[in-house]
Amino acid sequence: MSNPSLLILAGDGIGPEVMDEVKRVIDWFGDKRDLKFDVSEDLVGGAAYDVHGTALADETMAKALEVDAVLLGAVGGPKYDDLDFSLKPERGLLRLRKEMDLFSNLRPAQCFDALADFSSLKRDIVAGLDIMIVRELTSGSYFGEPRGIHVENNERVGINTHRYTESEIDRVARSAFELARRRNNKVCSMEKANVMEAGILWRDVVNEVHQADYADVELSHMYADNGAMQLVRAPKQFDVILTDNLFGDILSDCAAMLTGSLGMLPSASLGAPMENGRPKAMYEPVHGSAPDITGMGKANPTACILSFAMALRYSFDKGDEATRLENAIESVLASGVRTADLMQAGETNPVSTTEMGDAILAALEASL
Ligand code: NAD
Fold first, then answer.
1. Could you tell me the pTM of the whole model?
2. Are 221 and 278 in the same domain?
3. What is the pLDDT of residues 335-368, one digit of tens each?
4. Are residues 85 and 197 located together in one domain of the fold?
5. Which of the residues 249, 283, 318, 341 is marked catalytic?
6. E strands in the chain
7. Angle at 109 between CA 308 and CA 168, to 5 degrees
8. Which residue ranges of the chain lie beneath pLDDT 50?
9. Which of 13, 28, 162, 205 fits as disulfide partner to 141, beta carbons 3.0 to 4.6 Å?
10. For residue 258, what pLDDT is reported?
11. 83 is in which domain, residue-wise?
């Protein structure tokens, strides 16, 4: 049997720097755990625009549709700020999400003990936190028609349409229930069924999917505004939160900040299963291309490495190896090794991007 395939799109800014550390981790799993991948690399974002005049070449898109998983670094930067909207680096990312039909966006909010003091909340509220937000990514308010700005009665009117079909809700609900079964078996679905018809339908369909196929999973419902409050009041009550595109955008950023630095946050975007049973998938850190620190060796590679851990778990069914990698990162942080973004006032001597990679590889080695 051939090895599973990975397409690496490192992108712009710190993307290639953090991805270099991920490549070392991938090699380690190949050498030491006999988990070999066929890795190919290509361009996305500004890097692709510089060569092809577009943020994602058709050949790259075709490759992304063929591989088992895509690992993406980051796109964008000031050099491309004045480009026409249709040519901007972010269009590459949007094209990947759209053509791979990645409808389920997984954003974990996990608080490593060693970093609990980074949260704006009290240590006991966030220490040990491990929740997952499942956000619908391809429909809802950001895509619904009609949309636009037009003039009505001599004034401008802005319109967006919050629209969901049953099948769109059904498939993302299944994705959340499946995920919960691999975790603590609890889903809390969030909408605004008190004031929005689309919210009523959302709740109905989630209940139907639950009754039909996932009755073993504990399901609750919450209005999204209460959900936001509960996330900062007592976030540990949640396991998996299921929500739509608009509320998910806001709730996942809120949950992310419970845990501290942008340099620590991974994500996965999943689509329908392919012929081999694996979901279409793209894994990427939440952060951007960080032009302010590009080329300085200051970038924290952890978010990108944790994104690879998500790939191990959700694309390749290697949850044990994903845990091995997460534990290695936890032990590095516990030993006090910090990149600059993780330094508290008064702390000195941050490690570089490569030194953080070295420390994580050493911890992996120690796990054998
Ligand atoms: P950003 O995430 O790039 O940076 C925000 C701040 O966090 C910066 O101070 C940066 O130095 C810091 N930071 C981010 N990642 C870090 C890491 N791994 N280690 C240490 N520090 C880190 O967001 P921004 O500055 O708003 O955007 C910069 C560019 O990135 C823009 O062109 C934007 O469009 C793009 N962007 C891309 C993505 C993506 O590729 N998914 C996401 C967000 C922003």
1. 0.94
2. no
3. 999 999 998 878 888 999 999 999 999 999 999 9
4. no
5. 249
6. 5-11, 38-42, 69-74, 104-110, 130-136, 144-152, 155-161, 186-191, 218-223, 240-243, 266-273, 279-285
7. 80
8. none
9. 162
10. 83
11. 1-105+265-368
